Amino acid sequence: MLSEPTFNDIKRPLVWEPTNHIPSNQKSKNEDEEDFSDLLTDLRSELQTARDAEERILKDIQNELGRTGAAIGDKDVMHTFDLALSRLNNQIECVEIDSRQLANNLRVVSGLAEKISSKVSALDVAKSRVVECLQRVSDLRDLRTCAEGVEIAMQHENYEEAAKHIHRFLALDSAVFKMGEQIDAKDAGHSMKYSYEILRQAAGNLIGIIEKKFDTAVLSNDTASMERYFKLFPLINEHTSGLQRFGKYLCTKIEKLGDDNYKIMEAGGTDDNRKNLLYSDSLFNIFEGIARIIELHQPLIDNYYGPDKLLDLIGILQAECDRQAIRVINAFIQKRQFEHRAKLVDNYLRKSSSIEKIDPRELDSLLTEVTMMHTRAELYWRFLKRRLGEAPARPLSESDSKDGFEVGKSAEEVFEDEFTEEERRQLNEKLKKQKAERNNKLDLLLNRSALGTKMQELLGKYVLTEQYYMTESVKKAIEMDDVEEGATTSSLLDDVFFIVRKSIERSISSSNVDCVCAMLNNGITLLETDFIKYLQGSIKAGYPSVSWTAEAYQTAQTAYNVLQHGKTVAEAGPETQRRTYLIALNNLRAAISCVGTLKSGLKNVFAKHLTQISNVEQGKLEQSTNQFDDLCRRLGSLAHAAVLKLCDAAFRPKLKTNADAYFDLPHSITEEDFAEFEAVDPFIENFISQLDKHIAQFEQSLVPENYQDLLRAVSIEVVAQLERVIFKCTFNRMGALQLDKEFRQLTSYLTTVAGWSFREKCARVSQIVTLLNAENIQEATEFYQQTSREGNSLSLNDMKKVLFLRNDLPRDKIKLIKA
């Protein structure tokens, strides 16, 4: 048993023993002595530091033991400490023993795990080799079975059975044929090499037979035999050969369809009512026939070749489709003289020297037929995309057939019960990716096809010709602009917006988003230029003023127009000019409603006819239609400016004259004068009466929006004129009260005609009148400070100017007012 440590052992003083320092390099004797002296000094210093630390630790132990002894009384402190130390030592020994046992157990477990792992690995290798061996044995058995079965099937002309044997032979792992002759049977007739040769030769013979039989069936137009042998090509890995031969056969049917349709087209069609759409109907018949052929044979392709091969078949048929469709398009260009007319339009728009203008009415039916032709092509392309998208996603091709997929069965059906949830999810993602790739390939095929290129050329010329048609038709509408009796707007609005809507909706029928966006831009540009420019011409001519000097000038101008331009006095007079101005103003305001109606109507047409567009194309349409909002804002701004111009010409001179009558009245009045003015008003009632009579003249001539805008503008002008005359008068207390009464009466009238929003416009004058009615300087100052906190529209100088208008307030005190 280990001896227990005692307190005396712990109390034994610590002794520090210095380590030996031996220099590594050789020095001279003097240098060694100096280094040794320095080292000795350092060691003595360290020794003293250690002794001090020892004394401090011993002192701390003594103090702690003293406190412990005092706490437990007379018990033996040293004995208690020795027992505690002994127990701690025993516990440490137990922990050390347990740790060693745990380490030994872990080493044993680790060794067992390594042995088990090596045995499991060996079992996995053995299992994989057994499975591989079984597979090889099964393949060898299949190879012999196929060799025996293919000979019998070929002898009995059972080509379906022979093709299945060849399909299985081609699906065998190539490692089977590299195994050599180690496991050959004794009978040479059953050797692996012999079976391989039999099957290889049978495969070659079967390919030749199937191709020959298929060609014979095509020549004899035996549809059942054609389908029979067409199904055998994928079993012998001849997908391409089968599709090429079958596609060639279908191309002959398309060619016959195109020839028959072309003969009907040259004869003038079958419906005289649709002669304007003869060529678009011919294209429709061709596309419909091709679509019917594809729809009829798609199940055959999907079930025996796979949906990826449907795309290959479409590529084969597209060449013949292009040839037949372009033949019709070229006939259209030649018979309808579309190329010639497009060149004339281009030259006219470019301002060429040899300009030959075309009547836009001649282009109407031509443009409609162009859009219908593109619509037919677009519908055919959508049909192809839909059929390709609906095809079952079965990845069966030449490479896939080697994986053992059963012909005519989808991947989901083959592994539906064997796939885990994660594997099924990965398979679905793979199939979605394959569908997307097929759609991208189809888009590329159609866009690069001869038909796609030709349609793009037609659309480019269509957009140019449609722009010409729209521009010239709008110019014609401007020339024929007329106003019916009692109408507030002219015929220009209905004609122009009908033409613009007609052209844009015609472009929508092409089903091409880029074409629609181009026509939207052209239509909006036309409204922003020719349409607005025409209306602005009448606005810039101005509204004849009502002052006598303006009337004299207008009389001279009327006489000049009569002499120079041969106009009558009625046509060139100010009354006609006023009516023209008001009609143009109403047209500007009413055009905002027409633009809004046009935009909402086009959006409804988009939702009805452009349903299968991408997010990018949807963004293009929204960006183009948003330009209508900018056009509405511009029309609103022009209409408001025209209303202000009308107010300046028709109201400002009369308002100024009527307001100047205020100068003729006394404004420093007595109480008797105030009472008399209350009985018989000297100014404001007549002012309001004249204003109301003048405003009423425009109520029937303006559309409601312009009339309300005019009322607001006139109200603001009235307030401005009132402020002008106030600052040119002086008032006493009673005169200010009279002004306040008149101002309240005026604002009540203006609020009635212009609405409550008008009160915000007269806040400044209201503050001026309130300041003029102050009894003293202090009351005026308090009111100004209160309104300053609420947002005062008067500055300190304006306040002083107002108070200076009171002749009964001390001017020196007004000058001393500070903010």
Automatic annotation (TrEMBL):
Key words, A-Z: Coiled coil, Golgi apparatus, Membrane, Protein transport, Transport
Which residues lie within the region annotated Disordered? 17-36
The membrane topology term of the UniProt record is: Peripheral membrane protein
GO cellular component terms, semicolon-separated: Golgi membrane; Golgi transport complex
Coiled coil regions in record: 44-105, 417-448
**Where does this polypeptide localize?**
Golgi apparatus membrane
**Single GO biological process annotation from the record:** protein transport
Ranges where the COG4 transport protein middle alpha-helical bundle domain occurs: 199-540
Superkingdom, taxonomy of origin: Eukaryota
The stretch of residues making up the signal peptide is none
InterPro entries the record matches: COG4 (IPR048682), COG4_C (IPR048684), COG4_M (IPR013167), COG4_N (IPR048680)
List where the protein spans the membrane.
Answer: none
Family, as annotated: Belongs to the COG4 family.
The protein in question is named Conserved oligomeric Golgi complex subunit 4
